[in-house]
Amino acid sequence: MLIKRLLVVLLAILSVEGISTSPMKRIVVSGANKGIGCAVVDRLVKEHSDTYVYLGSRDASRGKAAVEAITKKNPDAAGRVAVLELDVSDEASIQKAAAQVASEGKIYGLVNNAGIAWGNGFEKTLQTNFFGPLKMSEAFLPNFEEGGRIVNLASASGPNFVARCGVSEHC
């Protein structure tokens, strides 16, 4: 129930009609190869045919598996979701991803979803969960179309909750 409410709110934030100046609303979702991020990507492409989503993943093979799972469930999503290799704790990775996306046009939305749980050390956790969304926003903001949105998510318990909801192994 919590995941459904979270997704409804997130989609409402991203789905303002008449704002996008592009034929497709292009959205970047970090930490999207599993858990809440994957569920967000899945719902965006399922419910909004005018959406192209960059599925951010530290590991390209896990990202590819998530894209395949999403497009298998929803064939209409084929060609509207792509892996974006991205580690939000690595400045060079963020800059490379932002440059790649910028080379393809403006974006409508950024969902800062990537995060790690405590137990990875204070510095790594702070770098990922606090500075990651800040650096992502700074890197992608210059490429926003007018009226675009940034959504920041934070939940260390999200993946555990999603796993109990019967969502597929990639989402």
Sheet with most strands: 5 strands, parallel
H/E element order: HEHEHEHEHEH
Q: Total number of β-strand segments?
A: 5
Q: How many distinct helices?
A: 6
The chain-level structural class is: alpha/beta
Instruction: Name the shape in a single word.
Output: globular
Helix-residue proportion: 40-55%
Low-confidence stretches: 16-21
- Amino-to-carboxy terminus distance: 16 Å
Oligomer: single chain
Provide mean pLDDT, rounded: 85
Strand content: 15-25%
| Order of adjacent strands in the largest pleated sheet | 3-2-1-4-5
| Overall radius of gyration | 15 Å
Write the layout of secondary structure elements.
Elements: H1 2-14, E1 25-29, H2 35-47, E2 51-57, H3 60-73, E3 81-85, H4 91-102, E4 107-112, H5 122-140, E5 144-152, H6 158-164
Parallel strand pairs: 1-2, 1-4, 2-3, 4-5
Structural account:
There is one protein chain. This protein is of the alpha/beta class and 171 residues long. Helix content is 46%, strand content 19%. It has six helices and five strands, in the order αβαβαβαβαβα. It has helices spanning 2-14, 35-47, 60-73, 91-102, 122-140, 158-164, and strands at residues 25-29, 51-57, 81-85, 107-112, 144-152. The chain has a five-stranded parallel beta sheet, with helices on both faces. Helix 2 (35-47) links the parallel strand 1 and strand 2. The longest helix has 19 residues, at 122-140. It is globular and about 40 Å long. The two termini are 16 Å apart. The model is unreliable at 16-21 (pLDDT under 50).
